[in-house]
Amino acid sequence: MKVLILVDIQNDFLPGGALAVPNGDEVVAVANRLMPEYELVVATQDWHPADHQSFASQHDGHAVGEVISVDGLEQILWPDHCVQGTPGAEFAAALNTEGVDHVIRKGTDRMIDSYSGFFDNDHRKATGLGDYLKGRGVTAVDVMGLATDYCVKFTALDAVGLGLSVRLLTEGSRGVELTPGDCNAAIHQMKEAGVRIEGEESE
């Protein structure tokens, strides 16, 4: 079965959003074009409580971009984003959500972030995506969305860890690039883990 995973194509990650990914809006048209080619389309959705501990606003004296320890894990502090029930957490308005078969919400535990669509950042809890795919006999997935160097990367790496064959659709992914070169480093890390990169597959 050919499966497409759309990672976090939400308003807050688009230009003008609380945590905008440069050119993030460009992935919407790619997603809409590709969805009909797949038998199954799954979308992940960042869905944070308002007091999520990854938000800099929850830590007096700390700023966005700082790295602190939260519940024993290193945590980059982000602007408040994708808060449950807010417009910023909704899927991009231009995204054809009718083409999405299943939605996985992540980042719902206030104490731990969840970049991956499969697990939280410490693999304490699963989101249910792995079981959902396994229950349908899925063995291979294509991954795209926002952002290449965070949620897309960790979703792809966890998919490999679960034994899935994984391909990154670079055409449909954009990165945050907190540090220049982060996206290239993320793609290299994915390749090293066994993720196939769109455009680099041997024919």
UniProtKB/TrEMBL annotation:
Family designation: Belongs to the isochorismatase family.
Residue ranges constituting the Isochorismatase-like domain according to the UniProt record: 3-196
Pathway named in the protein's UniProt entry: Cofactor biosynthesis; nicotinate biosynthesis; nicotinate from nicotinamide: step 1/1
Keywords assigned by UniProt, alphabetized: Hydrolase, Metal-binding, Pyridine nucleotide biosynthesis
InterPro entries: Isochorismatase-like_dom, Isochorismatase-like_sf, Isochorismatase_Nicotinamidase
Top-tier EC class: hydrolase
Molecular function as annotated in GO: metal ion binding; nicotinamidase activity
SUPFAM superfamilies: Isochorismatase-like hydrolases (SSF52499)
Native source organism of the sequence: Posidoniimonas corsicana
Domain of life: Bacteria
Pfam family, one: Isochorismatase
Enzyme Commission no: 3.5.1.19
Any one GO biological process: pyridine nucleotide biosynthetic process
Full protein name: Nicotinamidase
